[in-house]
Amino acid sequence: MTDDIRRTIDAVWRIEQARLIAGLARMVRDVGLAEELAQDALVTALQRWPETGIPDRPGAWLMATAKNRAIDHFRRKRLIAEKEPEVARGIADDLAAALPEPDARIDDDIGDDLLRLIFTACHPVLSTEARVALTLRLMGGLATEEIARAFLVPEATIAQRIVRAKRTLGEAKVPFEVPRGSERVARLASVLEVVYLIFNEGYSATAGDDWMRPQLCEEALRLGRILAGLAADEPEVHGLVALMEIQASRLGARTGPGGEPVLLLDQNRARWDRILIGRGLAALDRAEALAPERGPYALQAAIAACHARAPTSAETDWGRIAALYETLARVTPSPVIELNRAVAVAMAFGPAAGLALVDALAGEPALKSYHLLPSVRGDLLEKLGHHDE
After folding, report:
1. What is the 3-class SS of 271-320, one letter each residue?
2. Contact call for residues 87 and 38 (beta carbons, < 8 A)
3. Cα dist. 320→307, 324, 339, 340, 353 in Å?
4. Helix, strand or coil for residue 48?
């Protein structure tokens, strides 16, 4: 196999994998089986395409091949169970009718299928770690080895999480569907949490020597953009996309020549990606148009937008940021948010005002081991000239 053919197949798989698995999962009602069928189709492509060439419509070819594997699977299953070839043929015929023909468009209902897939992969029945791993595997198209490397854990650990996640979904009989009403709201929160966790692990890595892992930021952004297209009427989806776009715009300025971290106020804003900022502000406008009463992600995006709009750190509208943090603290009460508000208040109204808020947080159990609490307090004391403290 030539390198060009292999690269082309890799690119096709990267583009088609999520849609292929999503379409198959709708048909066979089993995420694990859908992934196996898709992988079988990929293996067949690796065997045949170097000889026959890349098909004109590679996605349709993969779907047709996976369809045939699905028919074979259900035929064998029914034969083993009942030893009745006639019944097996009937099952195969029914399945064939449900699956698209080789020349049919594979993106029929594809938006719904992808939305079902991401809601299934992020189902609360799974642990947070399992949701992250399964989402990156099914929707992000990352191999187990890539996920393990990104999170600095053994490949076997990630493999076990993915296997257990698929088994748990099957045992819990989680339906392959987009939930409705209040359940959809609850499940959407889980989906957004997973996407943002992926982004944050790339933006500020929690383990290893690297300050950032841009690949994870890119994957989270890609997932967020897909979700925004599939759930266009959900304001918090656009709020999250806005937040990630604006934060990602700073990636190139967050490290110095030697790889050292550069704090926000010290960053060279000429290195911020203006295209990403523009996309983020547009997504924020969309979120605010859908829901004037902003949710947590839209509020955080509005805070990020204050920094993005300021030509220099000195021109930052800290009063507005402090007000946004106050609103955010009411929407999602958290001592960490209160600490961030204290910093904004200090920047807007002076270190003494900020220190009063920080001191009020001194007894918070959640901040007992949080290194930024004494760090912020020390900075404010220094600005006030209280060097002994």
Report:
1. HCCHHHHHHHHHHHHHHHHHCCCCCHHHHHHHHHHHHHHCCCHHHCCHHH
2. no
3. 11, 6, 16, 13, 16
4. helix
DSSP state of 260: -
Return the closest-CA partner of residue 240 out of 225, 219, 230: 225
Report the range out of 21-35, 113-127, 139-153, 268-282 with the highest average pLDDT: 268-282
Q: Is the CB of residue 165 less than 8 Å from the CB of residue 159?
A: no
Number of C-alpha atoms within 13 angstroms, CB side, residue 122?
29
Buried b (16+ CB within 10 A) or exposed e, 84-104: eeeebeebbeebeeebbeeee
**What does the block give as tokens for 267?**
């960053």
Q: How far apart are CA 340 and CA 337, in angstroms?
A: 5
Instruction: Report yes or no: 318 and 344 within 8 Å, Cβ to Cβ.
Output: yes
Give pTM, 2 decimals. 0.76
| Tokens at 133, concatenated | 């791993």
Q: Is the pLDDT of residue 376 over 90?
A: yes
Q: Amino acid identity, residue 327?
A: T
Tens-digit pLDDT profile for residues 102-136: 433 333 444 678 888 888 998 989 998 999 899 88
Eight-state DSSP code of residue 250: T
Sequence-distant (6+) residues with CB within 8 A of 382 are: none
Provide the angle, in degrees to the nearest 10, between the axes of the packed helices 110-121 and 181-203: 70
Contact between residue 322 and residue 350 where contact means Cβ atoms under 8 Å apart = no
Q: List the alpha helices (DSSP H) in 29-57.
A: 31-52
| Coil/strand/helix, residue 170 | helix
| List of residues 6+ apart from 137 with CB closer than 8 A | 35, 143, 144, 147, 162
Query: Taking Cα atoms as reference points, which of 301, 299, 306, 341 lies closest to residue 322?
Result: 341
Q: Between residues 169 and 180, which one has the greater pLDDT?
A: 169
Instruction: Enter the DSSP assignment of 204.
Output: S
Which residues make Cβ contacts (< 8 Å) with residue 292, sequence separation at least 6?
none
Q: Which residues pair with 255 in a beta bridge?
A: 261
> What integer is the mean pLDDT of 326-343?
96
Who contacts 55 (Cβ-Cβ below 8 Å, separation ≥6)? Answer: 49, 61
Q: Which two tokens stand for residue 231?
A: 């759930």
| Polymer length in residues for the chain | 389
Residues facing 261 on adjacent strands = 255
**Digit-coded pLDDT (tens) for 139-154:** 877 788 888 877 778 9
Q: How far apart are CA 152 and CA 188, in angstroms?
A: 28
